UniProtKB/TrEMBL annotation:
It comes from the Bacteria. GO terms for molecular function: tRNA (guanine(37)-N1)-methyltransferase activity. Its EC number is 2.1.1.228. S-adenosyl-L-methionine binds at residues 112, 132-137. One of its GO terms (cellular component) is cytosol. Residues 1-224 form the tRNA methyltransferase TRMD/TRM10-type domain. Homodimer. InterPro entries: Alpha/beta_knot_MTases (IPR029028), tRNA_m1G_MeTrfase_C_sf (IPR023148), tRNA_m1G_MeTrfase_TrmD (IPR002649), tRNA_m1G_MTases_N (IPR029026), tRNA_MeTrfase_TRMD/TRM10 (IPR016009). The keyword Ion transport does not apply. Belongs to the RNA methyltransferase TrmD family. It holds the Pfam family tRNA_m1G_MT. This is tRNA (guanine-N(1)-)-methyltransferase. It catalyses: guanosine(37) in tRNA + S-adenosyl-L-methionine = N(1)-methylguanosine(37) in tRNA + S-adenosyl-L-homocysteine + H(+).
Amino acid sequence: MRFDIITVLPGLLESPFAHSILQRAQKKGLCEIVVHNLRDYADNKHKSVDDYPYGGGSGMVMQVAPFAACIEKLQAERHYDEIIFMTPDGETLNQSIANHLSTKGNMIILCGHYKGIDQRIRDIYVTRELSIGDYVLSGGELPAAVLVDAVVRLVPGVLSDETSALSDSFQGGLLDAPVYTRPADWRGHKVPDVLLSGNEAAINQWRDEQAIARTKDRRPDLLDE
């Protein structure tokens, strides 16, 4: 699995991919993450990649040519299953989408800035548009990092316990049950007896009941779905 991320601020993505699970996944050769500076594909001496919007209005718009040049260079080198644009008006990322993308091979992720990117890039090249929530950030770099993290952790071999991802919240359409660890009694706050019983059937039933109750309380919309 390879991710090619196109951005005007590559430095913003250095830390998220250099630590923890994403770092280990790359060292194991289970994924490759390559960040491309969009300004390297600018066709002017100032390396600017934005301009004023046609029709007037506030803000600046990212130009067609730099994105197209970078995308086409990458496509000439390998096949891509998806070209994803991170945008507030895209489809909201969820666990089902992450599961689906984890079965893919190579993906390009476009990070917008300013007022957005020229619509022609979205019309011609982009195969999927994703959002991480109903709010606006300064750019698409943090959403891109969120997407990569959500997908890569599902790739077999990335997590030391491969069953862990399968029991996460949303995998079964529910939120996860409460979890506990040692000590069993902390300042009078005790772990539920069933978790200490060693009765696997009873523990699984308790977890199922707790997951349903928590989902009903916090995200009843998931039960409707």
